[in-house]
UniProtKB/TrEMBL annotation:
Keyword Lipoprotein: no
Keywords of the record: Membrane, Transmembrane, Transmembrane helix
Residues spanning the membrane: 59-79, 85-102, 114-134, 140-160, 165-183, 195-212, 219-240, 246-266
Organism: Paenibacillus methanolicus
Keyword Cell membrane carried by entry: no
Protein name per the record: Uncharacterized protein
Top-level taxon of origin: Bacteria
């Protein structure tokens, strides 16, 4: 049998084994049929791969691993004593490393890669807020501003790395920033004023979904989902930030019905944008 074809079959059987599509003993039987004499079966699960990596690691690899671990411990324990510029540089370096590792791992394991990228994004947000508090910048404007920067960065990374969930999360974080700004600058707005604050954004995002669908279906899908979320934001804003909530529950139900009706009536159009 051609070697490339044999390797392809083995990879497919290993995929069945990882995904539990066939019982374990069936997969072992099929692998034994296609493995050549003397060839050792590669571990399928992460634990097996980790054990093999530990067994085959050289002394230099062990030294490097413990050196990196010691460096991380040193940075964490002495982070507060660093100069602010060094703190920013260290944080940015860790975030960049996590992003690069996540993007690299995505080719082999999509979930693991996205998990590393997500940890990097959370590290960026958490470390930034911690440094603001560490240096006495505790006013709400600093923290809201940093959240706004993070949200824009998440949107950019989500678009260029093609991670729709991160793209959508960036927009949701930006809505939180927008809501906080409204709450600080609008004193007791009327219910119709709250609608005016948010509903034009829903129309803009819906138009952007139509505009971008010719270049990227995934971006169009995220923008359409964002438009649907913004449509309900006036009621969510009322529930969270306003003391006089009025009949916002009825408004929410009516707007959900209206939104559902619009999505149903226009389903042939927006499905073409996102699918």
């Amino acid at each position: 049998m051609d070697q490339e074809r044999r390797k392809t079959i083995i990879r497919e059987i290993e995929h069945w084994q990882r995904s539990k599509l066939l019982p374990e003993h069936y997969c072992d039987f099929l692998l034994n049929l296609y493995l050549e004499t003397g060839e050792v079966k590669e571990p399928v699960y992460l634990s097996g791969k980790a054990v093999k990596a530990i067994k085959t690691a050289s002394g230099l690899s062990w030294l490097l691993a413990f050196g990196i671990f010691s460096l991380i411990c040193f940075v964490v324990l002495h982070f507060n004593a660093f100069h602010p510029l060094l703190q920013i540089g260290v944080t940015a370096s860790f975030v960049l490393i996590l992003l690069l590792l996540g993007q690299r791992f995505r080719d082999k394991n999509e979930a693991a890669g996205i998990g590393l990228i997500g940890v990097g994004m959370l590290l960026m947000l958490g470390a930034g807020i911690y440094m603001l508090q560490l240096h006495g910048l505790e006013k709400w404007g600093w923290q809201v501003g940093w959240l706004g920067i993070c949200s824009l960065f998440w949107v950019a990374v989500g678009i260029f790395a093609r991670i729709p969930l991160l793209h959508l999360g960036g927009w949701i974080a930006s809505f939180l920033v927008y809501g906080l700004l409204i709450s600080r600058n609008a004193n007791d707005p009327q219910w119709y004023e709250v609608q005016i604050f948010w509903l034009p954004l829903s129309i803009v995002f819906g138009w952007c979904s139509w505009f971008f669908h010719r270049w990227s279906k995934s971006i169009a899908a995220v923008l359409l989902a964002t438009a649907a979320i913004v449509w309900l934001m006036p009621e969510l804003y009322t529930a969270v930030f306003m003391e006089e909530q009025g009949w916002f529950q009825i408004q929410l139900i009516v707007k959900i019905v209206v939104e559902g009706g619009l999505l149903f009536a226009l389903r042939k159009k927006w499905i073409a944008w996102v699918a």
